[in-house]
Write a structure and sequence with these properties.
single chain, alpha+beta, four-stranded mixed beta sheet
């Protein structure tokens, strides 16, 4: 049986990691690619962190929900939905994940849970397809065959 507990190491607290997560793609070309997934009323931004631990944060803006109690309520609903459905992510997926509330007003737990499930399914699918792509170092077979035969391409 897997534990449903959220540990401190699963919280995204590092300002450096958060800045990398929200930096435009062109500025982080050498450090990885940021991905975005939308499932109303939540949007998720994620990137590989290379640490083998999935870390997350939740953001509910004051522009969307004016009252602090409503923002806390949506944050708690998102955290609970993530806690119960994080098994949808592949084991050992080292990603940083930010959930951003984009809805207008408070939504019920059922719609939040469905949105988080859709987001996690899409992230899981993108992770599985990106790991099956051949890396650029292994695709250049003509270069390695020329070196093996002792001839050069010049």
């Amino acid at each position: 049986m897997t534990s449903f507990r959220l540990y401190k190491k699963e919280k995204l607290c590092s300002l450096t990691a958060i800045n990398l997560l929200f930096t435009p793609k062109s500025a982080t070309a050498d450090e990885g690619v940021n991905h975005s997934v939308m499932a109303y009323p939540w949007r998720a931004v994620w990137r590989d962190n290379g640490e083998g631990v999935c870390r997350f944060l939740i953001s509910v803006g004051k522009k969307r929900l004016k009252h602090a109690v409503d923002r806390v309520k949506m944050r708690r609903r998102c955290r609970e939905a993530y806690r119960l459905n994080r098994v949808l992510l592949p084991e050992g997926a080292g990603i940083d994940l930010a959930f951003i509330y984009v809805g207008k007003g408070v939504t019920d737990y059922r719609s939040t849970e469905r949105a988080i499930q859709r987001i996690l399914h899409r992230v899981s699918h993108q992770l599985s397809t990106s790991h099956h792509e051949p890396s650029p170092t292994h695709t250049d077979s003509s270069h390695t065959s020329l070196e093996a035969s002792g001839t050069t391409g010049a």
